[in-house]
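Checked the freezer inventory, then went back to the computational side. Two predictions to log before the end of the day. The first one is the construct we discussed on Monday; recording sequence and tokens without edits.
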Amino acid sequence: MIIVADSGSTKCDWVAINKDGFKSEKMSTMGFNPFFHSSSFITNKLNEHEDLSMLAKRIEKVFFYGAGCSSELFKKIITEGLQNYFVNAEITVDHDLAGAVYATCGNEEGIACILGTGSNSCYFDGTNIYEEVPALGYILGDEGSGAYFGRQLLKLYLYKELPPHISKAFEDRFNTNKQEIFERVYMKEHANVYLASFMRFLSDTRDDEWVRKFIYKGFSEFITIHVWKYKNFKEVPIHFIGSVAFYFQDLLKHEAKIHHLNVGKIIKQPVHNLTKYHLSEV
């Protein structure tokens, strides 16, 4: 039996496949990112998941695609955490960009983008993956992501630059203040996940003209900073994965049209496409 995992910073989706190609029901845990989590933390959190623990010793191969798994050092953190849990398995850890490519491009040329809690992009020529723009994380980058929109929203709120009706709706919804926001952003763990949590508010108010323009601007920034860096971006399909891309795909397609992009697949959770990709491994 093999298991395939796709992990962002917020959530990790798991699907197990037996030798007959039968997929178990999808399971979810918190997301694991080696920037924030140690190997022991990963093992301990997995041990808390009852359904996954029932399968752990039966798993022979693990294919894990995760945010932050961009170097051998960070891959090692995830690998050790998984190896201590899936004790009988061969562990393969790769970057979430590789997962995005395998889930969207298949064997075809294209650009694969991630718009979830964080953001990233790469070009796939049918064989190799090329990353033109580095992922700078939620403090310096992550344009067009949940963390980016949350950061921008909080900044405008604290600077008193939100339209009055949006500011009131925000205060009615969250009843927060500068001290609490600073504590969550600067003193507690998983600030990127906290920032991304404000996407629900933006989703609920998306019919408002100001909110739509706010989202358009963020997507435009992602496209100009990331997608434009690939010389043939107008010639190949641009694929997107992640919750922000999926739930705001009407606004994303609107902005993509302005930039003359050929939008391909938009997938919320790539794990099912990744299981198809790995069926040959069973």
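The second is the one RB wanted added to the comparison set:
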Amino acid sequence: MGKFKIGIVSVDEHTSFVQRNMAATIESLKALGCSEQNILVRHAPRLTNVAMVVQFFAEYTDVDAVVVLTERDDSAEYATMLYAVSKLQIMWNMPVVIGDCTTAADAIDLVTVQTEMEAAAPEHTAPDRKSIN
């Protein structure tokens, strides 16, 4: 069984982008140590719903990080989504990366760095990043 558990948010309004990137994201995560059963996929109908899905992962699952598959753009909705997701990352102490299939490696890197930092912290003998908040 893989040592990482990763959530993927697919943004339905970017269907062709998600279709081009979903399989490659899953394969990349598997190559980086995730077993297929530890990759959870949820759908957000629009960019404005991404924060709700990320919060779902934080509150109701034990994923280590979330990958949001969506196209980068200059829209107000994209900027609002980035802001909301950034706040959730801090609130839940859970890495979230946004982009295409290449961001899967970034998610694993962030989880690894976070785990190493928590293990090195003097006040934690057995760190649990989910219990911080």
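For RB: The mean pLDDT is 90. The longest helix spans residues 103-120. Let me know if you want it refolded.
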